[in-house]
Write a structure and sequence with these properties.
Pfam families: EIIC-GAT. This protein has about 450 residues and is mostly helical. The protein has 15 helices and 6 strands.
């Protein structure tokens, strides 16, 4: 356990290159090419985090100034995902999430119940989070562990289901996102999109980045849009002219740089992805294999960033006007791209649909984050997290995600019986997605071939 923890503590920028290098060698990639791929992935991940850091450093203070400028007063503080992940791994139960996550993935791959090979080990903290909350709520260590397992099963199921949508929209071949924050939103976006498609007039409105740029010319360019959004946020924050212009250039820089940093990371992943495809074709004909990566790969898309920046002020004002909400959004405002990045493929890149759908999603999420705040604060204290002057803490990531509500509410009401039932339901979903559905498709194709013959 100590060696594993040391390995994880190296951080994603070191951990990912090692994993990618080993994975590439196993797939038959030449050592030199595998080494270069691993290093490129690590450098790409550092580059992405540098740009995300720029977004956080510029948007965080602006959001705080916006809150102060309008005199908002809410008693539960959004401490942000870095604190949430530290709290999740800081409990005795949460520290077991990584070996459990690896074991679950290996077992599912062995029995053909998932197509996702997850190299994004760090993000097992999402399952550790729900498991730690259940343990804090019930005091049942075994139930907390079982919650982690069931949550992981759901993450792999969602990653398998969304892989084709991710490839079609983002162009990432053989890559999916088993990400506990991002994947759940896609399954909320699907019914929303069904409704949007049936609203007369609205269903004809095209608002993807390419269409906007064609209609508005240079003013429709994603970088220019980022600059204008930065100006709006600066004005709402009460910034002076200098501060507003600085923020505008910083948000424009994020819009321009992040897609390029993602391209750098993809440069390292492409040869590994191709090798994975060839390996599976040779060893397991008819099966697909997806590399499970951090959804940071997706947030560089112009539609994601544009919608996320527009949702920031909406989120702050919703926090105040929604009756019963106690959460003051702050630290996770810069992480909104992670909450909506897999809604965007469902909405076909439509920024207006994403802003509306994402705002509704986060609005509902406020009530989840408010509901879990007492349990979350208890878990934080148990992990020796310093809550400072705040007597109540929560977060938008993962506190405002519907899976958190499901995995905490069910054990609270139904204990082991409820979790076993939902675990079996998810397991059947994996069997259907990876066994029954492919067999049906194969049978239909063979039947069609016989008819044509």
């Amino acid at each position: 356990m100590g060696v594993l923890q040391w390995f994880v503590d190296l951080g994603a920028s070191v951990l990912l290159p090692i994993i990618i290098f080993i994975f590439a060698l196993v797939l038959g990639t030449k050592p030199g090419k595998a080494f270069r791929a691993g290093i490129t992935v690590g450098i790409g991940f550092v580059a992405i985090n540098l740009v995300i850091g720029l977004l956080t450093d510029s948007l965080g203070p602006a959001a705080q100034s916006m809150v102060d400028n309008f005199g908002f007063n809410l008693n539960t503080i959004d401490v942000g995902w870095p604190a949430v992940s530290a709290i999740s791994y800081g409990t005795a139960l949460g520290s077991l999430a990584i070996p459990i996550g690896i074991a679950v993935n290996v077992l599912l791959l062995t029995f053909g119940l998932t197509k996702t090979l997850n190299v994004d080990i760090w993000n097992f903290w999402h399952a550790a989070f729900t498991g730690s909350l259940v343990y804090a709520l019930t005091g049942d260590f075994g139930l907390g562990i079982f919650t982690i397992v069931v949550h992981l099963l759901l993450i792999y199921l969602m990653a398998d289901v969304l892989a084709k949508d991710i490839e079609k929209f983002y162009g990432f071949q053989n890559i999916t996102f088993p990400h506990g924050t991002s994947t759940p939103s896609a399954f909320v976006a699907k019914p929303m999109n069904w409704v949007f498609d049936r609203i007369p007039g609205f269903n004809k409105l095209e608002a993807d980045p390419d269409t906007i740029q064609k209609k508005l010319g240079v003013f429709g360019d994603s970088t220019i849009i980022g600059v204008f959004i930065g100006i709006v946020i600066g004005v709402l924050a009460g910034y002076n002219v200098t501060e507003t212009l600085q923020l505008a250039i910083q948000t424009g820089a994020v819009m321009m740089l992040l897609p390029r940093m993602v391209s750098l990371l993809m440069e390292g992943l492409t040869p590994v992805s191709e090798a994975a495809g060839e390996f599976v074709k040779r060893r397991f004909p008819g099966r697909d294999l997806y590399i499970g990566m951090d959804s940071a790969l997706a947030i560089g898309h112009p539609a994601v960033l544009s919608a996320a920046l527009l949702i920031v002020p909406i989120t702050i004002f919703m926090a105040v006007i929604l009756p019963g909400n106690s959460v003051l959004p702050f630290a996770d405002l810069a992480s909104i791209p992670f909450l909506i990045c897999l809604m965007v493929p469902v909405f076909r890149g439509n920024i207006i649909r994403t802003v509306i759908g994402g705002s509704i999603y986060i609005g509902i999420g406020f009530y989840i984050a408010t509901w879990i705040a007492p349990i979350f604060t208890k878990a934080a204290v148990a992990s020796n997290f310093d809550t400072g002057a705040s007597s109540s803490i929560s977060a938008l990531i993962d506190g405002a995600v519907w899976t958190t509500f499901i995995f905490v509410w069910i054990p609270k009401i139904f204990s082991w019986y409820g979790m076993i039932a939902i675990g079996l339901l998810i397991l059947f979903g994996l069997i259907y997605q990876n066994k029954i559905k492919p067999n049906r498709q194969k049978a239909n194709e063979e039947s069609l071939e016989r008819k044509e013959a």
